[in-house]
Amino acid sequence: MNKNAKILIVGDKILPGKGLIAFLQKQGLTNVFSETNTGLDLLSQKSVTAFFLKEQPEYVFLGYIKAGGIAANMKYPADFIYENLEAQNNIIRAAFKNKVKKLLFYGSSCAYPKKCPQPIREEYLLEGALEKTSQPYAISKIAGIEMCRSFRQQYGTDFFSLIPATIYGPGDDFNLENGHVISSLIKRFHEAKIEKKKEIEVWGSGKPRREFIYIDDLCRASVFLMNNDFNINLINVGFGNDISIKKLAYLVKKIVGFKGKIIFNTSKPDGVLRKILDSSKINDIGWKPEFDLERGLKLTYEWYQKENNI
Ligand code: GDP
């Protein structure tokens, strides 16, 4: 992508889209379109078709349209499957018709089977049943991955998919209902600190393990893949280590400076017990993460405080 490349970022209100815009800007790539600066209606084929005809984007980062943590997935299954499918179909079709040079579709680790050998390799996709709480969303992601693969196979288009570990960092969604565990914990620990609460509740048993990737690392990986030709259909991008929710909770407690006790509420769902990606494919072609969890969490908490003037 040269400095004048026309780039479309889909999903600019949440990560990774929101982070990608900031990241590309820092690199001097400013010819960037998104829903917000174009009024693009992703759910309308007419709107998407008109946009592509007029602007002719060369590169498309197809980020998340509707996404969230375990609670949001359980509450809005219809919105999650419908909106993601509709929007990604519209974008992929228009990208094909308008000869987009390269399209990166962001999948999700919940697209992998619930019972998967760990770490999860790209080949395990579609080898088993999904985790029920995120199944509608996961099916939309599998459809997108398969669609990119099929266009590549039938028409030779350069459309490919990336599955990241759970993304966190500046720009994350701090709405408690939608958020993933890191943003939810930062917000709740911060509020508990301010209110000088004696204890705080963390969902589930604390035993599930998750792998997290800091937004800047994911942006770097995404741009690296966009700028090089590896003839890849699907690639994992993870940090390479996971952490239990219990340890994560104690780490957030330390960073935020909450002094009370942590209680694990086992009546809340745990989700899958372990989810760690095998990222050897991207490591082997030359990308490695730079931000460890503690540093990433500190930067995220600083951003959260600045953003909310607290
Ligand atoms: P998942 O990775 O798709 O399961 O989604 P989440 O990020 O929402 O949850 C990851 C794990 O963190 C699950 O085991 C949750 O039960 C646990 N967890 C603990 N406290 C919280 C919280 O306050 N919010 C969220 N979203 N998850 C939490």
From TrEMBL:
It comes from the Bacteria. Its EC number is 1.1.1.271. Keywords: Isomerase, Multifunctional enzyme, NADP, Oxidoreductase. NADP(+) binds at K141, H180. Pfam families: Epimerase. Substrate binds at R188, W203, R210, D270. GO terms for molecular function: GDP-L-fucose synthase activity; isomerase activity; NADP+ binding. One of its GO terms (biological process) is 'de novo' GDP-L-fucose biosynthetic process. Residues 36-238 form the NAD-dependent epimerase/dehydratase domain. The record marks S108, C110 as: Important for catalytic activity. The active site is at Y137 (proton donor/acceptor). InterPro entries: Epimerase_deHydtase, GDP_fucose/colitose_synth, NAD(P)-bd_dom_sf. Pathway: Nucleotide-sugar biosynthesis; GDP-L-fucose biosynthesis via de novo pathway; GDP-L-fucose from GDP-alpha-D-mannose: step 2/2. It catalyses: GDP-beta-L-fucose + NADP(+) = GDP-4-dehydro-alpha-D-rhamnose + NADPH + H(+). PANTHER family: GDP-L-FUCOSE SYNTHASE. Belongs to the NAD(P)-dependent epimerase/dehydratase family. Fucose synthase subfamily. Catalyzes the two-step NADP-dependent conversion of GDP-4-dehydro-6-deoxy-D-mannose to GDP-fucose, involving an epimerase and a reductase reaction. This is GDP-L-fucose synthase. The lineage of its organism: Bacteria, Candidatus Shapironibacteriota. The gene is fcl.
